[in-house]
Amino acid sequence: MKKAIYIIIGCISVVLGIIGIFVPGLPTTPFLLLSSWLFYNSSKRLHDALHRSKWLGPYIQRFQEKKGVGWKTKAVSIICMWTMISISAFGIIENLHVRILLLILGVVGTCSVLFIVPNPKKK
């Protein structure tokens, strides 16, 4: 029963991680790391498949190898995030309070990418 629950939660976590690739503000790596741990404790086959995945495996490998995220990737992430925030805040949302909240969350997200997400280690 425990293994089945781990597999179900792991699959949900993989789906959330995939969505996080495309949706700014939804993290990818934490969901994939959670899935990896859940699959490790429930299904070696799913765990290995996740790590070998052409699209998802690199997220986990970068974290495991403590490579961090390069400045170019951070810049692209921030540009994508602010593009979506701008479209939402100034093109779709009309409520001033929601617009302000969205902009504040954008600043928090930008600060997180710049100051919390680790940079690559120099050799």
Automatic annotation (TrEMBL):
UniProt keyword Zinc present: no
- The UniProt transmembrane annotation reads 6-39, 75-93, 99-117
Q: Which keywords appear in this protein's UniProt record, sorted alphabetically?
A: Membrane, Transmembrane, Transmembrane helix
Pfam families cross-referenced by the UniProt entry: DUF454
**Record carries keyword Membrane:** yes
Question: What InterPro entries does the entry give?
Answer: DUF454
Q: Which domain of life is it from?
A: Bacteria
**What PANTHER family does its record include?**
INNER MEMBRANE PROTEIN YBAN
What is the name attached to this protein's record? YbaN family protein
Which species does this protein come from? Butyricimonas hominis
